[in-house]
Design a protein that fits this description.
There is one protein chain. With 165 residues, this protein is of the alpha/beta class. The protein has 2 domains: 77 residues, TPP-binding domain (Rossmann fold); 48 residues, no CATH class. Helices cover 26% and strands 18% of the residues. The protein contains 6 helices and 8 strands. The strands form 3 sheets. The chain has a 3-stranded antiparallel beta sheet with strand order 4-3-5. Strands 6-7-8 form a 3-stranded parallel beta sheet. The chain has a two-stranded parallel ribbon with strand order 1-2. It is elongated, with a radius of gyration of 17 Å. GO terms for molecular function: histone deacetylase activity, NAD-dependent; NAD+ binding. It holds the Pfam family SIR2. Keywords: NAD, Transferase. This is Deacetylase sirtuin-type domain-containing protein.
């Protein structure tokens, strides 16, 4: 339901950007436009090139998970596995595992949109995983109203214009 509500806000031109830590592809699947979406922890349906950062589906990459595995950054390279159609670089799963670097472009876009928003809406996050957990504070310091909708308390409830549990 939250994904669909965000799409409605987008369709009414009331949503500028979505910052997500989810890897389930539900934001994109529900209709959030790619240019309005930063998936800080990757997307389980996408591969990315380590060289040019191009993203593509497993299918578009020609990646067979049964044959070459999940394609994590730490996975051993196997003979014959596909490479980037764009530059020939190594393809890896776009999911960010512990120890992996965050996608820098996604992080930069997140911070840029956070600093210029007038309302920052948090939906279903404990706000304890950084650097995403810092975004509400950045928005608040920039003058945005913070609205939190969550199952439980968060470290930012005292800053919230409105907190719903």
């Amino acid at each position: 339901p939250a994904h669909n509500a965000l799409v409605e806000l987008q369709d009414m031109n009331k949503l500028d950007f979505v910052i997500s830590q989810n890897v389930d592809n539900l934001h994109y699947k529900s209709g959030i436009k790619l240019e309005k979406l930063a998936e800080l922890h990757g997307n389980m349906t996408l591969m990315k090139c380590l060289q040019c950062n191009k993203k593509m589906t497993f299918e578009d990459a020609g990646w067979d998970q049964k044959k070459w595995g999940k394609g994590y950054r730490t996975s051993r390279i196997r003979k014959g596995q596909p490479t980037c159609h764009n530059c020939g670089g190594r393809l890896i799963n776009s999911i960010v595992n512990f120890g992996d670097p965050l996608p820098q472009e996604e992080l930069r876009n997140s911070i840029m949109h956070t600093e210029k928003c007038d309302v920052f809406l948090v939906i279903g996050s404990s706000l304890v995983v950084y650097p995403a957990a810092e975004m509400p504070a950045i928005a608040y310091r920039a003058g945005a109203k913070l609205i939190i909708i969550n199952k439980g308390d968060t470290p930012y409830d005292n800053m919230a214009y409105w907190a719903l549990y």
